[in-house]
């Protein structure tokens, strides 16, 4: 009997058919995806084309400036024409170029310094037009100085809030930046351009302001070059650019030159062939060497330009130096050296292994408070923060809705909600585990429970009194510290009335227990891996581990010696998420690590130049963030206990600057809050 | 906290400071203040020394730029107005005060929205204070705390005008709250003196009687914002 039957065959065919249909559907989906990808890549490519075009322009500009400078320098040094040198340096030496150059040199001898400075100003103008702001330039020029090996420690806070001080850039980065510069030089040589061509590009390029500067020496010389091209006699038939392929080469010299001028006056597209290739390779190098900074290639290029422009002051004029200093925005800071006399800060910038980890950069500035911000916390599941300030309010901010701005580097954010209720400065803040409630402690001795509005609300909505949930009454003096345990769903508060209280915020009778402390507590924290215990620090340096059930001190981590020295206070305690370790921030500039089981001091290090005010551990327990009144935030690797990044942030009010730092529990954000009423978010 | 003589004075309120010791350090003369927030420090210090001494609080230190002075004073007023707003929050609801009014002749529309809205008084109060916070902290108009553009100084007047309405609403509709707050802070009389002295508002609008000041009530029947 045959294995086939009619129903079997039918079934098989149906089955196959449905399978084909399914595959067809899958292929359609794939096709759509790939088409989307293609569109995306095309868009990207378009962006890169534009970028390339900008870079071409800049290169030409710089080449021109460079050649002018060399000509000048040579003229000044040797008092002769550049004829020999020029021909040697250029791939296609134009015969008449030297004489042109010498003419322009004579013209420009008197304008030597002026035109150099003009060049720099022009560069800045072009960059501004493209959208790079002064702050970015300053930031980049600081990085340049780091590249050049000018280490300097946290400088005095300067006007510019967005400065980022990145210790030493790792060797690998330095190398990659040098590589890029070498590539650029190679690319520019192979571009086969002459200054005459560049001079034509300059007046004709869209948006370049040069044409409107009608009276400075640069334009004069450029137009002189232009005239040369049209009028003068030369015999450079054989040094025709490879690029000029569209053109008829005739025997008539003049006709040829005029035609060439016309073509050059036309579109730039005829040059794009080999230029494109070289720039593409340049961009690839850039992209390859800067893995984690996809958006910053143009910035790096700029960075490199700045660094290499310094050697241009070969003339060694003082004016040149000054203008560099001014341009780099250093002013008096340029003379600062590392001020590390007494204390060898026990950190070193981590080695090249770390070069792939991310560097934090300032992204958002939160402006709205009228007085210092004492505490800042992220919402656990949103890109949002809450700040608590001495202006008696707390504010909710949504980082996904910054103010529209041309610069993407640093965005301002306005708050979407203001929590009003405290009748004095708000000193401490905590958020619960799912971001629905927050808790605040104030100078008015109250602890308040608030319901957090949705991050999508309109900033000017109607007032909803239900946001104010509870006022926890009990303390009789300022509440300086709060800690929330999600496992227990309970809140601990520490107050300068010498007590620590345990609350159940949702119950009708919230106060669970009161622990009287010996000495004034400054900070309290649940032990993250054991919520039956909490650590309390005091103004006299005492650090105690409490058993919350018995209410007794189960372990003394530090004795505390208020009488011995002034800055003995411990400002903040933090608990490691997975290991039984407590970290503490001290007035005497130290951060200390204690073992919760044995009570021993594991490690102690000088961490800042002034009192350490705040600590935050990242949710994976790998990094520690510390803030200090020395206006700096430092990021520490917890394994090696070394500092991997330092950020300058916040200005001083009286003698205080940074009050609070925080990691986001689940996203890559860090925050700092200061006495200057600002909060900063870094990504 | 202040310390013994040989030690340098460190002006900080660190964790653990008791409420009564907050800011209890020796006053610093304005000329010695070298931070960018010197004007704010000075104004707050003077208020702490005697909040009833309106004259001293409003006297600009010699050599200080007047635009910055006005700006920082206004920041401080908005900060302290929070106290009044908190008290109003308990009593002023959309049921009791469905619009922002003072005397019967005026209804104020809230300018914080795209088109001016007739917010209930409590919303008007909150929105005005929040809006003032945004404007006074805006990087666009006030990028610096040590120098103010002239064009930005012009904005201070409209902030004053709107913020004053909080006082006038409290005075005419929640008199006991107004009195309680005023006795604790002298805020309204200081604000009135401030806007008159620096010509930030026209006297016609100053409808809250302040002790000896002559008050003018307007006779217009119109809405304003």
Write up this protein:
The complex is a heterodimer of chains A (683) and B (225). Chain A contains twelve helices and 29 strands. With 683 residues, chain A is an alpha+beta fold. Chain A has a domain at 362-368 and 462-682: Methylamine Dehydrogenase, Chain H (7 Propeller), CATH 2.130.10.10. In chain A, the strands form seven sheets. A five-stranded mixed beta sheet of chain A has the order 5-1-29-28-27, with no helix packed on it. A four-stranded antiparallel beta sheet of chain A has the order 2-3-4-6, with no helix packed on it. In chain A, strands 7-8-9-10 form a four-stranded antiparallel beta sheet, with no helix packed on it. In chain A, a hairpin with a 4-residue loop joins strand 11 and strand 12 (490-495). In chain A, helix 5 (134-147) crosses helix 11 (297-309). Chain A is globular, with a radius of gyration of 33 Å. The termini of chain A are far apart. Mean pLDDT of chain A is 74; it is low at 84-104, 151-173, 187-220, 222-254, 263-273 and 288-356. Chain B is mainly α. Chain B has one domain (38-204): Up-down Bundle (Butyryl-CoA Dehydrogenase, subunit A, domain 3). Helices cover 47% and strands 4% of the residues of chain B. Chain B has a three-stranded mixed beta sheet with strand order 1-2-3. Chain B is globular and about 60 Å long. Mean pLDDT of chain B is 88; it is low at 212-225. Chains A and B meet through strand 6 and strand 15 of A and helix 3 and helix 4 of B.
């Amino acid at each position: 009997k045959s294995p086939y039957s009619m129903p079997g065959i039918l079934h098989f065919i149906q089955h196959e058919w449905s399978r084909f249909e399914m595959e067809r559907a899958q292929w359609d989906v794939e096709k759509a995806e790939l088409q989307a990808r293609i569109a995306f890549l095309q868009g990207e490519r378009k962006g890169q084309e534009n970028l390339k075009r900008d870079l071409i322009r800049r290169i030409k500009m710089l080449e021109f400036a460079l050649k002018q400078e060399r000509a000048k320098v040579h003229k000044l040094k040797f008092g002769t024409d550049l004829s020999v040198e020029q021909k040697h340096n250029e791939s296609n030496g134009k015969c008449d170029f030297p004489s042109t150059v010498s003419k322009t040199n004579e013209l420009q001898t008197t304008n030597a310094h002026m035109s150099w400075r003009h060049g720099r100003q022009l560069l800045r103008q072009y960059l501004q037009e493209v959208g790079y702001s002064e702050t970015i330039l300053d930031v980049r020029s600081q990085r340049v100085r780091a590249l050049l090996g000018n280490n300097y420690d946290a400088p005095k806070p300067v006007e510019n809030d967005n400065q980022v001080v990145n210790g030493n850039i790792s060797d690998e980065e330095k190398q990659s930046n040098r590589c890029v510069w070498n590539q650029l030089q190679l690319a520019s040589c192979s571009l086969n351009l002459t200054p005459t061509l560049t001079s034509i590009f300059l007046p004709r390029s869209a948006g370049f302001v040069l044409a409107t500067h009608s009276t400075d020496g640069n334009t004069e010389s450029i137009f002189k070059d232009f005239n040369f091209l049209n009028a003068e006699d030369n015999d450079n038939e054989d040094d025709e650019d490879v690029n000029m392929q569209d053109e008829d080469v005739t025997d008539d010299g003049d006709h040829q030159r005029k035609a060439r001028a016309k073509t050059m006056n036309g579109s730039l597209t005829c040059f794009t062939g080999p230029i494109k290739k070289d720039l593409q390779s340049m961009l690839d190098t850039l992209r390859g060497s800067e893995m984690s900074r996809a958006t910053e290639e143009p910035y790096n290029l700029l960075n490199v330009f700045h660094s290499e422009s310094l050697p241009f002051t070969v003339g060694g004029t003082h004016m040149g130096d000054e203008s560099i200093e001014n341009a780099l925005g250093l002013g008096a800071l340029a003379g600062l050296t590392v001020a590390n006399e007494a204390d060898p800060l026990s950190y070193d910038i981590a080695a090249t292994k770390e070069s792939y980890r991310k560097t934090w950069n300032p992204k958002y500035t939160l402006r709205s408070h009228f007085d210092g911000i004492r505490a800042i916390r992220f919402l656990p599941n949103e890109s949002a923060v809450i700040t608590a300030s001495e202006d008696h309010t707390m504010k909710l901010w949504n980082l996904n809705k910054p103010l529209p701005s041309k610069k993407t580097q640093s965005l301002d954010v306005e708050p979407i909600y203001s929590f009003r209720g405290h009748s004095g400065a708000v000193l401490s803040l905590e958020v619960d585990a799912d971001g629905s409630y927050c808790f605040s402690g104030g100078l008015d001795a109250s602890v308040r429970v608030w319901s957090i509005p949705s991050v999508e609300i309109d900033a000017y909505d109607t007032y909803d009194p239900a946001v104010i949930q509870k006022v926890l009454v009990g303390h009789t003096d300022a509440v300086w510290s709060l800690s929330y345990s999600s496992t227990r769903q309970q809140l601990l508060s520490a107050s300068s009335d010498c007590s620590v209280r345990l609350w159940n915020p949702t119950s009708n009778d919230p106060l669970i227990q009161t622990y009287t402390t010996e000495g004034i507590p400054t900070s309290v924290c649940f032990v993250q891996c054991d919520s039956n215990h909490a650590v309390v620090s005091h103004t006299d340096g005492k650090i105690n581990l409490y058993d919350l059930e018995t209410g007794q001190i189960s372990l003394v981590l530090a004795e505390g010696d208020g009488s011995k020295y002034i800055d003995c206070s411990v400002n903040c305690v933090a608990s490691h998420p997975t290991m039984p370790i407590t970290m503490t921030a001290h007035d005497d500039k130290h951060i200390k690590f204690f073992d919760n089981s044995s009570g021993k001091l594991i490690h102690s290090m000088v961490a800042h130049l002034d009192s350490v005010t705040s600590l935050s551990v990242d949710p994976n327990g790998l990094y520690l963030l510390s803030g200090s009144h020395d206006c700096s935030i430092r990021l520490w690797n917890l394994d090696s206990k070394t500092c991997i990044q330092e950020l300058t942030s916040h200005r001083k009010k009286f003698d205080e600057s940074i009050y609070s730092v925080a990691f986001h529990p689940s996203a890559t954000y860090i925050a700092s809050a200061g006495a200057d009423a600002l909060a900063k978010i870094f990504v | 906290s202040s310390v013994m003589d040989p030690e340098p004075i460190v002006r900080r309120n660190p964790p653990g400071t008791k409420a009564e010791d907050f800011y209890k350090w020796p006053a610093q003369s304005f000329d010695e203040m070298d931070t960018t927030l010197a004007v704010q420090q000075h104004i707050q210090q003077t208020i702490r020394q005697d909040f009833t001494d309106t004259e001293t609080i409003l006297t600009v230190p010699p050599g200080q730029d007047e635009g910055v002075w006005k700006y920082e004073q206004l920041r401080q007023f908005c900060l302290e107005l929070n106290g009044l707003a908190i008290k109003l929050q308990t009593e002023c609801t959309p049921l009791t005060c469905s619009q922002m009014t003072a005397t019967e002749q005026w209804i104020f529309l809230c300018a914080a929205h795209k088109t001016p809205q007739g917010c209930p008084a409590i919303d008007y109060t909150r929105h005005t204070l929040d809006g003032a916070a945004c404007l006074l902290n805006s990087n666009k108009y006030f990028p610096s705390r040590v120098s103010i553009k002239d064009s930005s100084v012009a904005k201070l007047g409209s902030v004053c005008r709107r913020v004053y309405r909080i006082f006038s609403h409290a005075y005419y509709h929640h008199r006991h709250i107004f009195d309680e707050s005023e006795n604790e802070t002298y805020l309204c009389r200081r604000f009135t003196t401030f806007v008159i002295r620096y010509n930030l508002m026209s006297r016609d609008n100053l409808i809250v009687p302040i002790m000896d000041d002559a008050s003018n009530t307007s006779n217009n029947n119109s809405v304003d914002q």
